[in-house]
Amino acid sequence: MMTFYFGRLVEMFPFFLSGLWMTTKVAFISLIVCTLIGFVLGMLRANDTFFFKHLIGVYVALARGTPFVVQIFIVFFIFPEWGLQLEPFPAALLAMAIMGSAFICEIVAGGIASIPKGQWEAAASSGLTKVQQLRFVIIPQALKVILPPLVGQYVLLIKDTSVVSVIGVMDLTRVGWVTVMRIPEGLMVFALVGLLYFAISYPLILLSNYLERKMAR
User: Which positions ≥6 away from 180 have C-beta within 8 Å?
Assistant: First the structure.
């Protein structure tokens, strides 16, 4: 019987590859969006302006302090009641952007805060504007602190894409659930799902470990 199930699983492998492609697409697009938004919010949060610092702090606290599945339900089921109707794929990207940018914001803000105040003063005394100080002096130094946890966060975000299956996105996890209805051997099916997630996450794990060792030196 196990041989029969394994044969069926091999036959359905292209179905898993389509789910892997959808997971990769959601992850890749959302990581780009999360990084861009997270860096902007992180720089604003590291600013001494009370309004930006605390307003973004509330956003970060809400995004980090509530389950991602709740956030994606709000985006997909509640937003339409407010006039924003989204298909599953863009809804998944929006929910990922909300959640992921909050975590990246804190990483970036923490990296900027780690730079000694004297660096800011030296940059200001050189006649640089605030934006130029960040671009040419602060961010290049802060990247040593930001990059290792940022890449680690990317791994977590890739794994969080599994939640988008609850709103009908045919990602790798949903492919697993559909398959297990046809092949009642859950361990075999989800072992394959886990291996495919590992295949796209492990290179980033290696990169994170490499960056941590490099920055430590």
Answer: 186, 189, 190
